[in-house]
Design goal:
By secondary structure, the chain is mainly alpha-helical. Helix content is about 30%, strand content about 5%. The strands form 3 sheets. It has a 3-stranded antiparallel beta sheet. The termini are far apart.
Length: about 450
């Protein structure tokens, strides 16, 4: 092969070459007028695959829909699952801490009842959203993960019931759906108000004749439900065959179908079917880059399913046993007993995040912008928390600020924080919010089947 001799530049040309090289380096980030700036390479989640959501049978979905909106499952027959997980409020309830038993109304309009049956306290934690819980990766539920898939347990699930947990649930979602019925403040009722609350008070939960059996008996006594259970489950031939686990499994199938949220603009972007607006594209770069959001909010549904302490403000009654007098909520530590888990809470999925305010395990932040700013400097945000951010229906008996009024309690929460401070400009925060808005799936916002006009029990549907 013929080789050309090397070109030798004279000193003036050498100087010109250096200047040209310098200009190339300086001008390389710039683009022509009107063209979008190039974006850095980032590692985006892959759609589908391991986090795919199954499609349950339509018969159980329709049955679960009725059960989800039917107050018959609550002790006093006045509260449905949908009371605290309503599609109008992003499958939550639109308030920081709401009322279950003893409340009336829906969402931010819910208030303590006017009669004798008034709530004893607010529900201790913010009502979590229900989107995409049918994905296999959601193997632990509740803010503290106290219900988890565990193949070493006879029922395949580790729960606070320990050895009393029964078998027959299809997974953690169906088991989770039925724990609120055992809570006096949520659905069961207080003391001896009804047969369910009495059984709970006596510690008769999963036992024969216990709270779960009593609720199953109510469903067995409604002919329309019996017919639908027979159509949905081959095993069920007569009313007595309906078990509490069947009720829970049907509700879980409904949740999986109704609130699947995997067709947002972001999903279509990942599939190469759409592009993001410029501000959202810049927000995506921040989310998976400089802002560091994806370190915890990772995967297809923007959660690592782990537990982190980020100095979230604590308000309301806290999480404690009846004999304890404090109002703190130590989060994951209440489950594991490990001091290193103190004040850690589960990373929430960010799907439909624009719909699910207020934010935080106690609903401390009313706006998405406010909770994003908290993440920039959690400790400073904790100490400067504006209590007007909380959305708390009036309840004169409440002592909502016990923790925030205590320097000792605040210091403990601040010390446990593991999220380093970072800095974002006002424009960058706006871009990040623009990206988060692309995580909304409009179909799941209202649900696929919607709210039934009536339920087989004949009780009112809110």
């Amino acid at each position: 092969m013929h080789r050309y001799p090397p070109i030798r530049l004279t000193p003036p040309l050498q100087r010109f070459g250096k200047i040209l090289a310098l200009l190339t380096v300086v001008l390389s980030p710039l683009t022509a007028v009107g063209e979008p700036a190039p974006t850095a390479a980032i590692d985006l989640p892959r759609p589908g695959a391991a986090d795919a959501i199954r499609t349950p049978p339509l018969a159980t979905v329709k049955l679960g829909r009725l059960l989800f909106y039917d107050p018959v499952l609550s002790g006093n027959k006045n509260i449905a699952c949908a009371t605290c997980h309503h599609p109008r409020f992003g499958t939550s309830d639109g308030v920081s801490l709401s009322f279950g038993e003893g409340g009336q109304g829906l969402g931010p309009e819910r208030r303590p009842s006017d009669g004798e049956n008034r709530p004893e306290q607010r529900i201790a934690r913010n009502s979590p959203a229900l989107f995409n819980l049918g994905a296999a990766a959601f193997s632990s539920l509740f803010h503290d993960g106290r219900l988890e898939a565990d193949p070493t347990r006879p029922a395949g699930i580790r729960t606070p019931l320990e050895d009393d947990m029964v078998q027959g649930f299809t997974g953690v979602l169906s088991a989770q759906a039925m724990f609120p019925v055992l809570s006096g403040d949520e659905m069961a009722g207080h003391y001896s108000e009804n047969a369910v609350s009495t059984a709970v008070r006596q510690g008769l939960l999963t036992h024969q004749g216990g709270a779960w059996d009593i609720i199953a008996g109510r469903i067995q006594a409604i002919p329309d439900y019996v017919t639908q259970f027979q159509q949905a489950y081959e095993r069920i031939e007569q009313a007595a065959d309906i078990r509490f686990t069947d009720i829970a499994n049907a509700i879980a199938d409904f949740l999986i179908f109704e609130f699947r949220a995997d067709n947002s603009l972001f999903d279509r972007y990942l599939r190469g079917q759409a592009s993001l607006p410029p501000a959202a594209q810049q927000g995506l770069q921040l989310f998976y880059g400089k802002a560091g959001c994806s370190q915890c909010h990772s995967g297809v549904y923007q959660t690592d399913h782990a537990f982190h302490a980020i100095a979230m403000p604590q308000l309301g009654p806290g999480k404690h046993a009846r004999f304890e007098s404090h109002q703190r909520d130590t989060g994951r530590m209440r489950v594991t007993g490990k001091i290193e888990d103190i004040y850690k809470f589960r990373t929430p999925s960010l799907r439909n995040i624009t719909l699910t305010a207020p934010y935080g395990h106690a609903g401390a932040y009313a706006t998405l912008a406010a909770v994003v700013r908290h993440h920039l400097d959690p400790v400073a945000s904790l100490y400067s928390y504006d209590r007007r951010q909380a959305i708390l229906p009036d309840f004169p008996a409440a002592q909502d600020w016990w923790v925030l009024d205590s320097p000792t309690e605040l210091a403990a929460i601040a010390t446990a924080n593991s999220l380093p401070a970072t800095s974002l400009s006002k424009q960058e925060i706006e871009q990040l919010l623009a990206f988060l808005a692309t995580l909304t799936d409009p179909v799941s916002q209202t649900g696929r089947l919607g709210i039934p006009e009536q339920v087989p029990s004949g009780l009112p549907v809110e």
